[in-house]
Amino acid sequence: MGYNDILHPNQKLDLGFETNQAILRLIAGIDRYRGEWSVLEKTRDNRTLRELRKIAAPQSIGYYDALELIYKNYTDIKLSENYVEELHQILIKHSARDTRYGGYKSLSGRAVYSGGSVFADPRLTETGMSAIFQWTNLQFEEQKLHPLLVIALFIYEFLSIHPFQNGNCRLSQLLATLCLLRSGYSFIQYVPVGYYIVAHKKEYYDAIMAGQRKRGTEDEKIGQWLFFFLEGLTTLTEKLDKKYKTYKAAGPYLNGRQKRIQDFIAERQPVKFADIALGFPDIPAGTLKKDLQYLRGENAAVMMGSGRGSIYMFLPVGESLM
Length: 322
Known about the structure:
Layout: H1 17-31, H2 46-55, H3 58-73, H4 81-92, E1 110-113, E2 116-119, H5 125-142, H6 147-161, H7 168-182, H8 193-199, H9 201-212, H10 223-250, H11 256-268, H12 273-279, H13 285-297, E3 302-304, E4 311-313
Antiparallel strand pairs: 1-2, 3-4
Helix pairs in contact: 1-10, 2-3, 3-4, 3-7, 4-7, 5-6, 6-7, 6-10, 9-10
């Protein structure tokens, strides 16, 4: 039996009316977070990844290296077999155990998971990987299927193919992150998908196995996996909400000069740029403009109007003009 005989991803989504409605509700909730989260940019510091590397086991250091690479370059990274193999090499390069198994797996046997196992035939690896990448990129291009469904299906198929001898679970997390970022879900940079999977390992394996036990049959449905995947993203968005509320309550970080400018605006508002320049003759005009732009970007000050007629006002944390 060839891989194309067991692929048919769309057939695995035939889940019934009530299940589909529940999935659509989850997707709608997650889609509220689709788009840029630049307001939290300062909270995602790559120093965190560097610190994690220092205390990580060898097999984890490569994961953080690969994750940082994706964060920095996801707009330029194409979803392809070549790139997945490159990611896998980064993933395993610090592990003496894993580096013995570069490239697609060649050993026969079963991929063993908690509560069961699924046959992962090495003879189907190359054709399987080629087919699933072709299908996934086509779906992203045609946009007929919601990207979250495409990503969930892609990760399920990737784990079912089990292309490498070691590192498939960690690699699937990296690929999910890449696909989410490329699909506009930039929030995943601030609440990594791996955290949820590590905290819910049993549910993760059970969800994958629920479909894989009937691999290659008409009864292979992935409803349990879809719910796990989407509920995981929902949980991560809830964590993001809490993180944002904490950030908002604390207010933006301002250096001493910027705090002086903000206080000046608050005491004399509304003020024009010329007023601020007169109040701070020791600060070059270019620096003042950059500071005011930063204050506006952090909602630490508001500009109304345009050109020379524009004025600046101060708004306390949590307040808005609306």
